[in-house]
Design a protein that fits this description.
Elements (H helix, E strand, L loop, with lengths): L3 E6 L2 E6 L3 E4 L4 E4 L6 H7 L9 H14 L4 E4 L12 H12 L4 E4 L16 E2 L3 E4 L2 E4 L9 E4 L5 E3 L6 E8 L2 E3 L19 E6 L2 E4 L5
Length: about 220
């Protein structure tokens, strides 16, 4: 089974990856949304018991993606953080991971959870609320643009496959706007109501499965 879905957005060939990322070959760029570093630590400090994993697992998956897809740049479409927890284990894990990938350019768009990101010292470039790259406008919130194709996150879209009750993270392909799934596995989400012509590409066990367009 293919692990990616090759499509064209705004005239640019891109790959929607089952690992919850978008790869743009022409720019050798990998895009993810809603990383939510430190979310599990925040819940644990509040006394909520969680299984092991979290940030460490997310970073291991990101390492595998970078091995499989030649990338000079990683763009994070908002919600890099989930809260301030510099002394938590996620921060040490991120610093170690960043040292291993010091040649990788990382740019981050500001998300609604990123209030302390400017002080977080993560070794990344802060791009503000929006930035244009070729025919794309990168941002966190799903706000359309009159002439650019928007790549964004924030909504954590989910899809249900025929005959299955479980919902899976998904890309939501809309007219002039593509919403990426949440990269972090420790997130909830929404099952979007699709307008005519819109479709979902579900991320199922690291495979991208394109569902039929809505009628």
């Amino acid at each position: 089974m293919r692990t990616d879905c090759a499509i064209t957005l705004a005239g640019e060939p891109v790959h929607l990856l089952g690992e919850r990322a978008l790869y743009w070959p022409a720019r050798e760029a990998l895009l993810i949304a809603d990383l939510h570093l430190g979310k599990a630590d925040l819940f644990r400090r509040a006394g909520i018991g969680l299984p092991s994993g979290g940030t460490g697992d997310d970073l291991e998956r990101l390492t595998r993606l970078l091995r499989q897809h030649p990338a000079r740049t990683l763009w994070i479409l908002g919600d890099v953080l989930h809260g301030a927890a510099h002394r938590a284990s996620w921060y040490r894990q991120w610093q170690g991971w960043r040292e291993q990938h010091e040649a990788l350019e990382i740019g981050a768009l500001a998300g609604n959870h990123d209030r302390v990101l400017p002080k977080a010292d993560l070794g990344i470039t802060l791009l503000g609320e929006r930035v244009q790259e070729g025919p794309f406008l990168l941002r966190h919130d799903p706000q359309p643009h009159p002439s650019l194709h928007v790549l964004c996150g924030h909504l954590h879209p989910l899809a249900r496959l025929p005959g299955m009750q479980r919902r899976w993270p998904a890309f939501w392909l809309r007219d002039g706007l593509t919403v990426l799934p949440a990269y972090s596995r420790f997130t909830a989400g929404i099952a979007p109501v699709l307008d005519a012509g819109e479709r979902l590409v579900a991320c199922v066990e690291d495979a991208a499965i394109a569902l039929p367009p809505s009628r």
